[in-house]
Fold this sequence. Notes:
The complex is a heterodimer. By secondary structure, chain A is of the alpha+beta class. Chain A is built from three helices and five strands. Chain A has one domain (2-86): Beta-grasp domain (Ubiquitin-like (UB roll)), CATH 3.10.20. Chain A has a five-stranded mixed β-sheet with strand order 2-1-5-3-4. In chain A, a hairpin with a 2-residue loop joins strand 3 (59-62) and strand 4. Chain A starts with a strand and ends in a 6-residue tail after the last strand. The mean pLDDT of chain A is 93. Chain B is α+β, with helices and mostly antiparallel strands. Chain B has three helices and eight strands; from the N terminus they run E-H-E-E-H-E-E-E-H-E-E. Chain A binds chain B through residues 6, 8-10, 12, 55-57, 59, 61, 64, 84, 86-92, and chain B through 31, 43-46, 48-50, 52, 74, 85-86, 106, 109-118, 127-134, 136.
Amino acid sequence: xxxxxxxxxxxxxxxxxxxxxxxxxxxxxxxxxxxxxxxxxxxxxxxxxxxxxxxxxxxxxxxxxxxxxxxxxxxxxxxxxxxxxxxxxxxx
Amino acid sequence: xxxxxxxxxxxxxxxxxxxxxxxxxxxxxxxxxxxxxxxxxxxxxxxxxxxxxxxxxxxxxxxxxxxxxxxxxxxxxxxxxxxxxxxxxxxxxxxxxxxxxxxxxxxxxxxxxxxxxxxxxxxxxxxxxxxxxxxxxxxxx
Lengths: 92, 141
């Protein structure tokens, strides 16, 4: 089972663009991002606060739909999912 | 026309195409790269999602503000000072609807469409903060 994790803007600079990674059944959204972010201290600190929660400005998407950061521990990821993590948007 | 692209567009052509028999007003919003002591700007998008969101915003604007036509072109890639970033062309039967429709679209884009800007300065670069500051506005050397 694999998922694609996409980082954008400042987070892309910290983690690289797209990461395709294997997952175990039942992996949570939060668990997946923590596992990837844990390999990069600066990146981890950019996304998570001192309590290990997503920083309030971090935006999450699963298959193009926004996900509430507070429910990221309850939402699991499945084979083929596309996950996106990015800072506040600034288009226009 | 709803698009995210590197190329510029012919605004005059969009205006002409926006004029329908029922059109009484055309409003053009042209967001350009401002010289905030920068050299250039890099624009990045989550393209597949951003395009769908622009299409959704256009449909909503058309329905809410009774617009005859909507064009939204958001550019990405590297742009110089003075270049067009975002062009919105709306037409409506009356000016009030056209102005309000245009405003609705730009505010919706700023609020949620996944697009980011990075300003390239003489000393380095800085991400333009979004709705909530995220500590990356300072120049990074």
